[in-house]
């Protein structure tokens, strides 16, 4: 078996909540008991509604965010028990991150050359001449003409800026790149170019790629494996080719709202809004909106179950999973009936 590139073990991230700009005693449960293993060369997509913890998971994976508890391992070594200098070196060379909006992620006062040289200088990679050569190589890799080396981010188009951000993430030749909504701030016309560039780089450089997006169809197209998150928890993992046969009711509901993914009918209706991340429900956090929930769901969150169909890599955390092969139409009917019962006096 291939040695994991990065591993999260029982990771929790909690933040102090703010109320009217003032820190309160409440804790936001941004990530709860997250476990994840990334192997070299794979692409993992992360999906879920806004605020479910996708960015937190991404930041923990690249060592930008320290977990409140739990371990993050790079190449089998616990990142947060390393001496700080060793950790900076491991993070710098192990993983690169591409953020949503290149306009804010790039220092607007630095030229493209300086932005790309910076990580090489900080990590003392090669001689000055070799660093200059690496800058040219990086620009070539992401399809930026060399004449732009002395340009400032503000003089570039949105697509060019994101290419600079991608080149910067690749500067130290990491084996893992995490892209957090890398196209959502871009014009629709350049989104496909940036996604194709990422796929191309992944193939050429043998990168593992973690791809966070609201756009499930894009995640499905880009990824080998899809992870569904709900209120800070990973609730399902499945091979991208199998997502239409997902077993967790939340994954099914999320996918039913994606045009063209499941049988074309109305989305599965859920009960009420997403609960607050400062007071997540007991047991399974999805139970308050789930048409299948019962007392058992309020008591505990089950551990992962492997799919009975035996699909390798497909697992979910649910007491009452959707039957394999159950149509979305049936689920819509079931969920609608539950919603009516709950609304009845
Ligand atoms: N620094 C912080 N302080 C307080 N709460 C935070 C902080 N960072 C994130 N959160 C909260 O943690 C939860 C998870 O946030 P996160 O940004 O990881 O979600 P997300 O799924 O990436 O959302 P989106 O899709 O909107 O970017 C949210 O409730 C968010 O408000």
TrEMBL record:
InterPro entries listed in its UniProt record: AAA+_ATPase, ABC_transp_ATP-bind, ABC_transporter-like_ATP-bd, ABC_transporter-like_CS, Oligopep_ABC_C, P-loop_NTPase
Domain (ABC transporter) ranges: 11-256
UniProt keyword S-adenosyl-L-methionine present: no
PROSITE patterns per the UniProt record, alphabetical: ABC_TRANSPORTER_1 (PS00211), ABC_TRANSPORTER_2 (PS50893)
One Pfam short name: ABC_tran
GO molecular function: ATP binding
Keywords of the record: ATP-binding, Nucleotide-binding, Transport
CDD domains linked: ABC_NikE_OppD_transporters
Family: Belongs to the ABC transporter superfamily.
Record-linked NCBIfam families: oligo_HPY
Stored PANTHER family: D,D-DIPEPTIDE TRANSPORT ATP-BINDING PROTEIN DDPF-RELATED, TRANSPORT ATP-BINDING PROTEIN
Entry protein name: ABC transporter ATP-binding protein
Organism: Streptomyces solicavernae
